[in-house]
Amino acid sequence: MMKKHNFSAGPCVLPQEVLKKASEAVINFNGLDLSLIEISHRSKDFIEVMENARSLAIELLGLEGKGYKALFLQGGASLEFLMVAYNLLEKKAAYLNTGTWSSKALKEAKFLGEVAEVASSKDANFNYIPKGYTIPEDADYFHCTSNNTIFGTQIKDFPQTAVPLVCDMSSDIFSRQLDFSKFDLIYAGAQKNMGPAGTTLVVVKEEVLGKVSRAIPSMLDYKVHLDKDSMFNTPPVFAVYVSMLTLQWLKDLGGIAAIEKINNEKASLVYNEIDRNPLFKGFAAREDRSSMNATFNLVDEAHKDAFDALWKGAGINGLNGHRSVGGYRASMYNALSVESAKVLVETMQELEKKVG
Amino acid sequence: MMKKHNFSAGPCVLPQEVLKKASEAVINFNGLDLSLIEISHRSKDFIEVMENARSLAIELLGLEGKGYKALFLQGGASLEFLMVAYNLLEKKAAYLNTGTWSSKALKEAKFLGEVAEVASSKDANFNYIPKGYTIPEDADYFHCTSNNTIFGTQIKDFPQTAVPLVCDMSSDIFSRQLDFSKFDLIYAGAQKNMGPAGTTLVVVKEEVLGKVSRAIPSMLDYKVHLDKDSMFNTPPVFAVYVSMLTLQWLKDLGGIAAIEKINNEKASLVYNEIDRNPLFKGFAAREDRSSMNATFNLVDEAHKDAFDALWKGAGINGLNGHRSVGGYRASMYNALSVESAKVLVETMQELEKKVG
Ligand SMILES: Cc1ncc(COP(=O)(O)O)c(C=O)c1O
Ligand SMILES: Cc1ncc(COP(=O)(O)O)c(C=O)c1O
Ligand SMILES: [Mg+2]
Ligand SMILES: [Mg+2]
Ligand SMILES: [Mg+2]
Ligand SMILES: [Mg+2]
């Protein structure tokens, strides 16, 4: 097998040891002589997986004993756009618009009530994070996107809010230390830092629920899922299991504090090269640069074929930028090795040697 | 590895060759030197998986060229309870209540409009399928559950309907030949005859959509998913892949006609023994017996420990009945071998020898 350097934006690189265990469990899980995916989700063995996954999430975020619970749901972050509003929006909600995903979250919330867009960076193709905006005090909640996967920006300072704080952390959860107890509801599709596509982590402070007057359909009601310990209906067994393995891997590594150092090292390597190398320029405003997704372009598009051949030849995968930005996007999620970041830097330097 | 006989009601037994391929793909998919679960869902390799899964579903159901499309969604059949009503219920819908799942479907539909329960077998703990009911002609659609997983009953003759026919086929899709073109919308959680938990197949006749006046949130709108070829948001990659493998396995076997013969053979073996053996009695009305889930009880509960020891010792798994019925439930989905059905019959006969 050729060593690949997987910079895919999601689904994305996962730890090799996690993949190995997941592969084995598909054949024989827990020594049961049955596959993980052919046993009842009500079996002791799977209930243990679900409970481990839920408690590992709470523990890694430092939220034990603070009134939070974790759910593993289906539908992706996209269904959370709707569920958040169904469960929390009584009259008016405030949204910060920092990109494609924020815009979509905002759009779905409008089905349930009034939405105030407190600020937007759409004027500059979302290459920065708006600051100094005001959150209406009568909003039911404030919603933001911590990391903008497509544009490569990341919120560094979250606002102090009088109203509940809701955050889509799909693309940077478990990647950096934050005071997670500032948030009332966090959600994240698994397919970046947590596991395969097919499950969504929701971490919610229970006290914010039950305040809207509408009747909520069962599958969209966080309370229904909480009452059933995230097993109201058949959960996405495989995705939850692999998420559990990845969270255990992170815990064994030293948790968020440890991975944050590694993530910062990778981001420094890549951003330093983007800045140093005269052939490349960064897309996002410097102060808002994401440590997960580095977006950058060639100064001269004429070098595209040469660069593409170089990185593909080096075993790099998934470096093409999203069509909204063009150029390149180096997604450096938790499981990406420092070595992979170095290989990318070397190919950028090779291009310079070749054409510079 | 001890040979297991997996009678689990779902998630449940899958073909061994499917499990083997799935396990390999978690390490190295399509020879890419990357895991199936760490590549982009927009990659050529995964788009091919999704397209194959969709077209195999249509082909196996004999619905090619008849105006139908297939979707692989998230949220389980439970989310379809809601989506069906969101997309089709303008004023009033008609529901046949044949068990726990029908009741839940009906409950969610009530969030969107009026629901007429045309008949119910609740009076007899759902041990039969009501017949001779009338479907109101002004209903937006008629909803039924083809196979009642918990109670072990199955609809043999579907009513002629003037209104669109919607069916939850979660636990018997792809198991028997039907004129599937009688149905306007079919849905099924994957975790019985198709694959792992985590994806839901929806097969819909496009012409029935777009007729309700309400605005439908994106993730609940079948048209949104159809327009994006089932990739509106990140699909549950692994569950779709394994479903595709299972559908391919079924096609190679000879399709629904071939599996129906095997399913009938298994069902005959088990029901004949239930009837013959004086220690056991069937739960469901004979004419409505499910070929997928055989529910039965001990005539004398005093033999419970002896029988449980016998089947567990024989490598049988998942035979305990649902708490609504008690006793036993032998789920005999497509991937269960005739050999496993024979092993169950032998343990029933052994009990007779021991205590009879
Ligand atoms: C920040 C963010 N939010 C939401 C989504 C949508 O997630 P999903 O495809 O699971 O619905 C994505 C997907 O990449 C994302 O990056
Ligand atoms: C007939 C039927 N419908 C619906 C469901 C619910 O499916 P899910 O758990 O995927 O929501 C089940 C689950 O066993 C079922 O058997
Ligand atoms: Mg974005
Ligand atoms: Mg530069
Ligand atoms: Mg039932
Ligand atoms: Mg008998």
UniProtKB/TrEMBL annotation, chains A, B:
Give the reactions, separated by semicolons, that this protein catalyses.
4-(phosphooxy)-L-threonine + 2-oxoglutarate = (R)-3-hydroxy-2-oxo-4-phosphooxybutanoate + L-glutamate; O-phospho-L-serine + 2-oxoglutarate = 3-phosphooxypyruvate + L-glutamate
Provide the cofactor list for this protein: pyridoxal 5'-phosphate
Entry binding sites for pyridoxal 5'-phosphate: A77, S78, W101, T149, D168, Q191, N233, T234
* Positions that bind L-glutamate: R42
UniProt keywords, alphabetically: Amino-acid biosynthesis, Aminotransferase, Cytoplasm, Pyridoxal phosphate, Pyridoxine biosynthesis, Serine biosynthesis, Transferase
Q: Where is the Aminotransferase class V domain?
A: 6-339
Keyword Transferase tagged: yes
Q: Name one GO molecular function term.
A: O-phospho-L-serine:2-oxoglutarate aminotransferase activity
EC number(s) stated in the UniProt entry for this protein = 2.6.1.52
Q: Which residues carry this modification: N6-(pyridoxal phosphate)lysine?
A: K192
Q: How is the cofactor bound, as the UniProt entry phrases it?
A: Binds 1 pyridoxal phosphate per subunit.
Q: Where in the cell is it found?
A: Cytoplasm
Q: Name one GO cellular component term.
A: cytoplasm
Associated pathway: Amino-acid biosynthesis; L-serine biosynthesis; L-serine from 3-phospho-D-glycerate: step 2/3; Cofactor biosynthesis; pyridoxine 5'-phosphate biosynthesis; pyridoxine 5'-phosphate from D-erythrose 4-phosphate: step 3/5
Family as reported in the entry's similarity comment: Belongs to the class-V pyridoxal-phosphate-dependent aminotransferase family. SerC subfamily.
NCBIfam families for the chain: PRK05355.1 (NF003764)
Oligomer status and interactors: Homodimer.
| UniProt xrefs under HAMAP family | SerC_aminotrans_5 (MF_00160)
General function of this protein:
Catalyzes the reversible conversion of 3-phosphohydroxypyruvate to phosphoserine and of 3-hydroxy-2-oxo-4-phosphonooxybutanoate to phosphohydroxythreonine.
The family database entries (PANTHER family) matched by this protein are listed as: PHOSPHOSERINE AMINOTRANSFERASE (PTHR43247)
UniProt name for this protein: Phosphoserine aminotransferase
Organism of origin:
Sinomicrobium oceani
